[in-house]
Amino acid sequence: MTDTITLTGLVAYGYHGVFEHEKRDGQEFTIDVSLDVDTRRAAASDDIADTVHYGELADAVVRIVTGERFDLIETLADRLAAAVMEDERVLATAVTVHKPHAPIPHAFADVSVTARRTRSGA
């Protein structure tokens, strides 16, 4: 049995992109994270230690987005998903990186990449 914890619309400033101005000037990225977890233990104990602390999750995501620079948001999404999966309670994750200010010379609402990872045997 799995439940879902979702963190939606987390905004962090990063320096990711293939163009020099993106690496120099940076831009806002918006991150959505969905975690498949079994929350029954936490529900029974009512103790945050028995679940994934979404405040700490947000801190970890922001550290990655604002830390190392990547050319591709595919790489950023992969690194974020790998970090989420370090918590053994997470059975699967979907991490979406939105780049709403991508250097595209046409009107658009958003560009995003979603990385999905599943623990083997889950």
UniProtKB/TrEMBL annotation:
Dihydroneopterin aldolase/epimerase domain residues: 5-117
Keywords: Folate biosynthesis, Lyase
Gene3D superfamilies: 3.30.1130.10
Pathways involved: Cofactor biosynthesis; tetrahydrofolate biosynthesis; 2-amino-4-hydroxy-6-hydroxymethyl-7,8-dihydropteridine diphosphate from 7,8-dihydroneopterin triphosphate: step 3/4
EC numbers for this chain: 4.1.2.25
UniProt catalytic activity: 7,8-dihydroneopterin = 6-hydroxymethyl-7,8-dihydropterin + glycolaldehyde
Purpose: Catalyzes the conversion of 7,8-dihydroneopterin to 6-hydroxymethyl-7,8-dihydropterin.
Family, similarity comment: Belongs to the DHNA family.
Family matches, as NCBIfam families: folB, folB_dom
Protein name: 7,8-dihydroneopterin aldolase
Gene: folB
